[in-house]
Each structure stands twice: as structure tokens, then as C-alpha cells.
Amino acid sequence: MKYLHAAITEALRVYPPVPIDSRVAVADDVLPDGTCVKAGWFADYCPYAMARDEGLWGTDCRDFKPERWLDEKGEFVGMDAARFPVFNAGPRTCMGKEMAYVQMKAVAAAVIRRFRVEVAALEHSGGGEVSVPEHEMSITLRMKGGLPVRLKRRMK
């Protein structure tokens, strides 16, 4: 379950459900790096871009690597929420974070137990195969047309 937790977390890092988020300052403030933010100004951050920042995640930042979340003993190691803001941070941390992980693990376990899942060839809307799916940008990040899969029932 520790590796599954790491794999889910890595999937959320690489493809965050909310790819960009905005906040409005209710009062003048100063960010930790010294940047002044005036009341009424928007402050945006982009978890999608942050996941592809070598300064935050290293040269393998574009790779799906669940192992980055595990220590040498195979124990899950969380990251600072400012670096991994998928569930927000500070007083705005998602109250449903732990329940979301429970649900994701339950669904993954149920599917893996019953089926062998293969990703079908991904096709670009302009024709031809691609290795990375196209996305529809909206409030939540979605794969354009969904993820084509082939499910094969496991034998009992």
C-alpha cells in the first residue's frame, strides 16, 4: 500500500487535478521571498508547471517516478505543501485529503484485483499516435476523450 500511495501521489504531482489556482489578497502582504502583494491583487500558482520545474523536482521531473516519494526503507515521505500544493497548504489544506487517498486506493485495488489494465494506443486529434495524452484545460485537468484502455478480466 505504501507503493500505491506513492504512485497515486506521483500521478497527482505530474497531472494535478487543478492545474492552476488563483488567490486574491484581502490585505497588503509580503511573500516569503520579499515580494509585495497589495490588497485586491491576484496571486496565481500553477501545480502543473511546478511539477515540471527542475529546480523543485530535479532533472527527472517529467518522469513518472513513484520512488521519489519513498525513502530507502520503502516508507512514504511526504513533501512540503508549498512544493506539492495539490491539496493546497496551510490553513487552506483540503479537509478531505485523507479520505481522497482512501477512495483512490480502494478504487485502484478493486480494479487491479479484478482486471488486467492495458492502455490502448493514444491517438492525436490531428492523426498519429502519441505517448502523452492531450488535455482539456478547464478548472480541472482532464484527458481529451478520456484514457482509452483495454480491460481483461482476471481469472479467479
Automatic annotation (TrEMBL):
One of its GO terms (biological process) is lipid metabolic process. Heme binds at C94. Its cofactor is heme. It comes from Musa troglodytarum. This is Cytochrome P450. The keyword Iron-sulfur does not apply. Pfam families: p450 (PF00067). Keywords: Heme, Iron, Metal-binding, Monooxygenase, Oxidoreductase. It comes from the Eukaryota. One of its GO terms (molecular function) is heme binding. Belongs to the cytochrome P450 family. PROSITE patterns: CYTOCHROME_P450.
